[in-house]
């Protein structure tokens, strides 16, 4: 049996996925053979493969805008106690003047990846037969690509993680091998099917959206907010398509598929990194996974069944 952990894209909401993964791995004692991530998921899979949950939690609960952006295109201000996001026009203008292709730059994120996904970790993962895969969108070839740590050099793998996270045109564009790469979520936000194609027979998929749409977007006020709305619309439908295909593939091959959605809307702009909120989301993810497990236990376990029998029934 080959077990896989799949983590969707979701920017700052990755903190919630960290909490879910912590519960599954420490309390349910889940051990996975395959880890596949898209965007923020790709940032997490290396640490999860080595069970470095404390290190990952420290990263995700201390990150801020400066950790990610070398040229931040967003301006955040409080209006009546609520955070409102707008565009830093001077920053975006500076990028245009310098001939760059995006509104902002995420070179600080690239440095953070190199600092936290070390060569030692890279070699440990390859040595213990875990497969860690990240998703990137090849804009030049118009296709989705999945990059396994077992097929990459250390520097290449760090590049692919970075490319998988770059939500263009607000973050940097990865130019590599004569191609331009961007956020893997543009084509494969929840790569369940890829896990199946790689031989997974049991999959836990953490999806950083609610199962049912719970809000209507406010009318766009400028071209930038309209662009966010358009991207949000497209990614919602990419996610639904990915999940539908994943469910069908799992059903046809008799694969156990467990889906973990966020129970509520965490944020409407996942490119805003607030460490206070992200700490709360990590704890929320942990509590949510625990409550879901308890719900399954109460629903499926008569008192006479053993834990192993319950696990088999679930």
Question: Would you give an account of this structure?
Answer:
Strands 1, 2, 5, 6, 7, 8, 9 and 10 form an 8-stranded mixed sheet that branches. The longest helix has 30 residues, at 223-252. The chain is 46% helix and 18% strand. By secondary structure, it is an alpha/beta fold. A hairpin with a 2-residue loop joins strand 3 and strand 4.
What's the gist of this structure?
Helices cover 46% and strands 18% of the residues. The chain is an alpha/beta fold and 314 residues long.
Helix segment tally: 12
Low-confidence parts lasting 5 or more residues at pLDDT below 50? 308-314
Q: How would the global form be characterised?
A: globular
- The secondary-structure class comes to alpha/beta
Question: How large is the radius of gyration?
Answer: 19 Å
Beta-strand portion reads 15-25%
Main sheet, how many strands, which sense, barrel?
A: 8 strands, mixed
Give helix and strand order, one letter per element, not per position.
EHEHHHEEHHHEEHEEHEHEHH
């Amino acid at each position: 049996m080959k077990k896989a952990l799949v983590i969707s894209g979701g920017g700052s909401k990755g903190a919630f996925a960290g909490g879910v993964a912590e519960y599954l791995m420490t309390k349910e004692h889940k051990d996975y053979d395959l880890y596949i991530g898209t965007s923020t998921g790709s940032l997490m899979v290396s640490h999860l493969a080595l069970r470095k949950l404390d290190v990952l939690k420290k990263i995700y609960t201390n990150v801020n805008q400066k950790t990610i952006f070398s040229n931040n295109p967003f301006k955040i201000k409080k209006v009546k106690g609520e955070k409102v996001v707008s565009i830093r026009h001077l920053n975006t203008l500076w990028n245009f003047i310098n001939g760059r292709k995006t509104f902002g730059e995420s070179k600080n994120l690239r440095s953070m990846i190199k600092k936290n996904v070390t060569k030692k970790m890279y070699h440990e993962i390859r040595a213990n037969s875990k497969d860690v895969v990240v998703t990137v969108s090849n804009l030049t070839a118009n296709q989705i690509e999945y990059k396994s740590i077992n097929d990459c050099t250390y520097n290449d793998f760090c590049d692919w993680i970075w490319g998988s996270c770059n939500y263009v045109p607000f973050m940097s564009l990865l130019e590599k091998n004569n191609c331009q790469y961007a956020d893997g979520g543009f084509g494969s936000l929840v790569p369940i099917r890829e896990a199946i194609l790689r031989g997974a027979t049991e999959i836990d998929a953490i999806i950083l959206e609610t199962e049912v749409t719970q809000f209507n977007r406010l009318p766009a006020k400028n071209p930038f907010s309209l662009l966010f709305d358009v991207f949000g619309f497209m990614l919602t439908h990419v996610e639904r398509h990915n999940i539908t295909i994943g469910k069908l593939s799992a059903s046809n091959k008799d694969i156990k598929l467990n889906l973990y959605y966020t129970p509520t809307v965490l944020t409407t702009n996942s490119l805003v990194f607030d460490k206070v909120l992200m700490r709360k989301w990590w704890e929320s993810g942990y509590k949510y996974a625990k409550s879901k497990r308890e719900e399954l236990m109460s629903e499926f376990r008569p008192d006479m069944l053993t834990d192993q029998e319950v696990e088999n029934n679930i």
